[in-house]
Amino acid sequence: MITLKIALAGAVVALGLPTISQAADEPSCVALTRAFWTDVFVKRNADVAMDYLSDTYIQHVAAPQPPIAEWVETWRGVFATPPTGPGVDFAEAQKDYTTDIVSIQGDAQFAVLRAHDYGTWDHGPDAGKKFDFHYYDIFRCSDGKLAEHWYSEDPDPSVGP
After folding, report:
1. Strand partners, 138
2. Which domains are delineated in the chain?
3. I want to staple 126 with a disulfide (CB 3.0 to 4.6 A). Which of 113, 121, 136, 156 is the partner?
């Protein structure tokens, strides 16, 4: 049951599902997803990724799916200064890349995260131009770890002057 509580003058609107700020009673998959996103993407630290991912983690991307160790190594390169490896052109590899959790909702088994990424391209055909896009990530949790991941990104992220 979704409950609605509205308190005026700076209080909270609660719809029964967690959103941007973390609630003490946040469902386990939501809390795990929030911690993973914050530690790996906001703090740019791929070294802690395996603390969150199951040994049988499935990343639903176009085939062939890389082994999880390769995924972690790609993100290490993305977050390196300067970036290295196959992810060097990822938005996340840019110097002023920022990601914000816009909202996160879910339960003990699934979490849906909406994120907002923005910054400036460092090189390539769009060097010096701003990027700004939103996307959704869906995670399935099992045995206290992230077990599967699906995502949807803007088909045409804005690139500006």
Report:
1. 112, 150
2. 18-160 (3.10.450.50)
3. 121
